[in-house]
């Protein structure tokens, strides 16, 4: 076996395990948390009281207008100066969740707005209140609109978790950097890391179409 192939073989399981233990959990938990935050923010921006709208508008404006890397540094390196110290993984989880929540709120808000006003009126006509209309009529229809961009958001998040390496989360990219620092073979190892990220992204992309088809059955 050529030396470069042996190196890739020896490092593969370290990278794969780092992906299973840190990269994927960070992406999944951040995405779920971001969905919850995004949904609540979208509802407030659409139907909340004016003072609360101002707060969430400011949150979305700040998160969308600043780099995610800077946000991670502020949480992990900046907060200790005011007495709040977080471990690397929770800091990354908070940073990614806030980022995903801001972007997902725009997706969800747009999906809700896309439902024709006549759907509200029809729900009210048959005796539903606004909460029932939202839960039974508006949100189910919004799923079909929001699902593709939300799926793309999750795929992007898988790749963005590599930024967690900058705050010492031992995910796949940081593991690659540590192996490179010992073997001095950056080209081979970074190609291998890119291939694993590509595998994850491709697999999720393949799962996206069946998921959309499943929900489209009820459209």
Can you walk me through this structure?
With 219 residues, this protein is an all-alpha fold. The chain has helices at residues 3-47, 50-65, 68-78, 88-114, 117-125, 130-160, 172-183, 186-216. The mean pLDDT is 91. The chain has eight helices and no strands. The N and C termini lie far apart (54 Å).
Largest sheet: none
Category by helix and strand content = mainly alpha
Could you name the ranges where pLDDT drops below 50 across 5 or more consecutive residues? none
Portion in beta strands: under 5%
Query: Quick check: average pLDDT?
Result: 91
- Number of helices, counting only DSSP H or I runs of 4 residues or more: 8
Dominant shape: flat
Rg, nearest Å: 21 Å
Distance between the termini: 54 Å
Along the chain, the helix and strand elements come as: HHHHHHHH
Number of strands: 0
What is the helical fraction, as a range of percent? over 70%
Main traits of this protein?
single chain; 219 residues; mainly alpha; 83% helix
């Amino acid at each position: 076996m050529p030396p470069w192939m042996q190196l890739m073989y020896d490092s593969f399981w370290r990278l794969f395990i780092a992906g299973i233990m840190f990269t994927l959990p960070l992406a999944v938990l951040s995405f779920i948390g971001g969905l919850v935050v995004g949904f609540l923010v979208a509802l407030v921006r659409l139907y909340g009281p004016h003072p609360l709208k101002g707060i969430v508008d400011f949150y979305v404006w700040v998160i969308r207008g600043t780099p995610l890397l800077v946000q991670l540094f502020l949480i992990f390196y900046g907060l200790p100066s005011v007495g709040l110290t977080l471990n690397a993984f929770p800091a990354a989880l908070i940073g990614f969740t806030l980022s995903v929540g801001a972007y997902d709120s725009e997706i969800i808000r747009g999906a809700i707005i896309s439902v024709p006003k006549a759907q509200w009126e029809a729900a009210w006509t048959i005796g539903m209140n606004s909460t029932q209309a939202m839960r039974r009529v508006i949100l189910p229809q919004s799923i079909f609109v929001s699902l593709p961009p939300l799926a793309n958001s999750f795929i992007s998040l898988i790749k963005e978790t590599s930024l967690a390496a900058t705050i010492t989360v031992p995910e796949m990219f940081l593991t690659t950097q540590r192996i490179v620092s010992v073997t001095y073979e950056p080209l081979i190892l970074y190609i291998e890391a890119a291939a694993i990220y590509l595998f994850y992204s491709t697999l999720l992309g393949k799962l996206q179409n069946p998921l959309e088809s499943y929900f489209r059955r009820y459209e």
